[in-house]
Fold:
Amino acid sequence: MTAPPAERPALSPSRRPLRRRLLPTLPLLTLLAMLGPVAAGLGGTLLPAFGHLPAAGETGPSLDPFRALFAWPGLGDAVRLSITTGLLATATSLAIVVLITAGWSGTRAFRVIERLLSPLLAVPHAAAAFGLAFLIAPSGWIARLFSPGLTGWERPPDLLIVQDPWGLTMTAGLVAKEVPFLLLMTLAALGQVKAQESVTVARALGYGRLTGWLKTVFPRVYAQIRLPVYVVLAYSMSVVDVAVILGPNTPPTLSVQIVRWMADPDLAMRLQAAAGALLQLGLVLGALALWFLLERLVAWLARRWIASGRRGRVDPLWRGIGLGAAGLSAFAVLAGLAGLALWSVAGFWSFPDALPDGLSLRSWGRHGPAATEALGETALIALTATVGALALAIGCLEAEHRYGLRPSTRGLWLLYLPLLVPQIAFLPGLQTLLLFGGADMGRLPVILAHLVFVLPYVFLSLGDPYRAWDSRQGIVAAALGSSPDRVLWRVRLPMLLRPVLTASAVGLAVSVGQYLPTLLIGGGRVATLTTEAVALASGGDRRAIGVYGLMQSAAALIPFALALALPALIWRNRKGLAIG
Amino acid sequence: MDKGLELRGLTVRQNGTVLAALDRRIGPGEVVTLMGPSGSGKSTLLSAIIGTLARDFGMEGRVHLDGTDITDLPPHKRKVGILFQDDLLFPHLSVGQNLAFGLEPGGSRAERRARVEGALTEVGLEGFADRDPATLSGGQRARVALMRMLLAEPCALLLDEPFSRLDAELRQQVRDLVFGTARQRDLPVLMVTHDEEDARAAGGDVVRL
Structure:
């Protein structure tokens, strides 16, 4: 007999109607949580930039805000700084990552660097920037080590090293933090290409380790890390907290100046700020376009280089440079942290002594209570945003799994969009909307603003392990009578405990490090460790900065330590879930 | 009641073309072996029967189990068990917890524990309940996987190349155990393999795709 063609049921229809309605809506809800604020904020920037801000008594359209912006004497320098720091920081970070990976992957030195990766990544930008300043300032640790012996300095020299007008120190601070990020992305990409085989073949053909990697592996890896590179470029061009700490002051970078205008009691300055924000967005888009063209040029040159058949005789030199640069950038962050720690417990410490006269807990006693309060606020915001992001990310991935959807390139771009649009371009607009829309500023809007940035990172961190899970485990569980929900809670999530905790740690670290969303959307009423620490930058109280910087770093680092320790503890009797 | 697994014109298509088709009844205790080169859609046919066919495939026909049409049921309501070439024991659960995972809810803790112990004893693994599955040998793990599936009391058993990861000596042993227990419980068995030896050991009909 022939059976009538049957409509196949959905992969695993849940019997519970609520779930059935909730789960499919999660991807949409996620997009809304991520892109809604970006779109609204851009809108809220666009209108005032063209002179429309009824609350300030201005109704547009007019070009006055742009006229005022172009009349600002610092604009030329600010624009130049944005472009040079962005391109230089991105190119340098990428070069270091490429050299270290090409020259050293698979070696013991590389494994040491890999192990340092998570902590380096977790250290917030502001803390790393302070740490760098403590190292290289004229009165910093390095100068102290060589003074007066080598330098003859009895007092700090009058040199503008930190906050130099060229933004070089700021660029260095960015590089130290972007190298770990790009390296992490590169390692993830390496997992998807058969790198080792290609290099082995190339070396058998007489190519050096580095040249072989560059010619056979890099083109495939770059295709995968392109979006993260764009993120680094957009971020480096428009960052605020690092620029406040390490960037030039008079005039400051465009992003910092926009924040100053936003804080001006004169509401009309918001129009100028909005125009500046649009200009900053334009600069970033322009630089991304330029980078895109440079990619083409480099690809064309590289194809000729590959076809030339050169085997790479100076490889050892480049390998050395790569290791040196990567080691230096890791050292800058770690030694900087040590500097923060030392200053936080330093008693009297005069130049040029390399170490303080004595240690004391006075700074902790003085700043501890306020810092602890800020820690509470930081933790509350970070935990809420991260739990929300986890729920949405797991919901999306599970919907993808149950309804047989495929992750698409377009989806990936959407995920990266909130990271590509500079914060300074849409957060002022979002603040203006909230302020004049009658919404309350404060903790909840700040949490939602953090979610915009926490969500993509949590999703990116969890996505690969979630999708790589052996779905036959789920089939077996279903054949044993488990509903899709039971499979999720009793099998999939426990097995994915480690990546879920890692994604949580990433989310917490991202939230802890957020400066601009807390400052602008909190309306000055939400004090986290990051906003408090950055606020200390102009004062130069190194002991206070040490306390806040160290607590900020701890707030970001401890979750990573827990993400390592907890699965090892919980699954200590489960060899099948041990690492590697 | 009409016992057994009945595939009525079961056809799996990919992009409109027929990938595999099977129309036959498998009685209680009977083993039918499905053979064919890789890519011939054997495993896809199995996922159609347990209800986990991927979206890219189309399906026609009905699947009946013990007289009930299960074609539109979700996988966890079908009462069709499956064993893969990997044992797929849940790595986060102990051996005993793995076995208890498939037990129907209900019964006292002691009763459930006794059933788990009984199942372990049946395959010569008494006292293994608290062990980490990762510390078991391949043969032991295969036996636990079999008992886990049987404790869920399926009404049919599907085997997807179940012995191909075991070495020759072990293979014979596990094969006998699986076919023996299935026959003893009157389960209809559909096996996919490309090992002629498996087919001979099964002793039932062989369908070639």
Summary: Chain A touches chain B at residues 1-3, 5-9, 11-13, 15, 404, 470, 472-473, 475-484, 486, 490-491, 494-495, 497, 571, 573-577 (CB under 8 Å).
